[in-house]
Amino acid sequence: MRVITQRRLGGPDVLEMVEVERPEPHEGEVLVRVHAAGVNPVDRLARTGEAPLFGDPPFTLGWDLSGVVESCGRDVTEFRPGDEVFGMIRGGAYAEYVAVRVEHLAPKPATIDHVHAAATPAAALTSWQALVDIGQIGPGRRVLVHAAAGGVGHIAVQIAKAEGAYVIGTARADKHAFLHDLGVDEPLDYTTTDFTRAVHDIDVALDLIGGDYGPRTLVTLRPGGLLVSAVLSDLGVTAQDAQARGVRFAPVAVQPSGATLRKVAALLAAGRIRPHVSARLPWEETGKAHEMGESGRTQGKIVLSVVADGE
């Protein structure tokens, strides 16, 4: 089978397609024929070595996948060959076949295709774990999402709305129509408006940018409010900083969870979460997909098609 791998750290040009032996599913695993794989910021961090998640190369990137169960390992009862599934793994999704733990997968809703399913897992799990599991948002809660039109942000605002929250999202003005369509109550153009002055009494804020956004966001929180950061580096704020202001801070490191993805799948099937795919590229153009993602202006997600339509 083929995989996209890299033998050295560096730019998108280090990504190459090679032939490797197809894996066999072990106990508690299924072998998934990957139809589509999502592109995430964490892929760039691992590719360059900025976040040494996999040690030294060679390794294969990719956290999001959607595909079809090819075979099952011993004692697997949750799935059977032919089932359509989607999920998040810790690297390795840029491949034709992947052996995946069953607890990391959920049935793909029949209402969406593999491309849109592959756009969802990491973003939805990050958002759910930050806003629902940690933030415990609910009806009437005021939620602030930074980078609200991005890959994680556009899913986060939809999950917040599904939970009944009032959502404020920061993004450039040309993306405000997109945010309104997602259900954002109050889009804010961070290039012309100082959100620290315009936003107040926030119950839960989600920082997807880092740097000075963390400390600046603390001032928007109500007493006892919570800032959750999903950035991997340069958080810009500590729990002690938050405590000094009478608020709270929590970092979130996304974890695979098929159980949570089953809840997400119900929202996908009902149309309450609509993943936006800004670009769909054949996986032979993975390097180009990474270049596009690093432009900093992507709306929604970029997805790689591993299986061409009709195969």
Q: How would you characterize this protein structure?
A:
The chain is an alpha/beta fold and 311 residues long. It has 10 helices and 15 strands. The strands form 3 sheets. Strands 3, 4, 5, 6, 7, 14 and 15 form a 7-stranded mixed beta sheet that branches. Strands 10-9-8-11-12-13 form a 6-stranded parallel beta sheet. Strands 1-2 form a two-stranded antiparallel ribbon. α3 (121-134) packs across α4. The longest helix has 14 residues, at 121-134.
In brief, what are we looking at here?
With 311 residues, this protein is of the alpha/beta class. It has helices at residues 41-48, 114-118, 121-134, 153-162, 176-182, 195-198, 213-218, 239-244, 258-269, 286-293, and strands at 2-6, 15-19, 29-39, 64-72, 84-88, 97-101, 105-107, 142-145, 166-170, 186-188, 202-207, 221-229, 248-251, 277-282, 301-305.
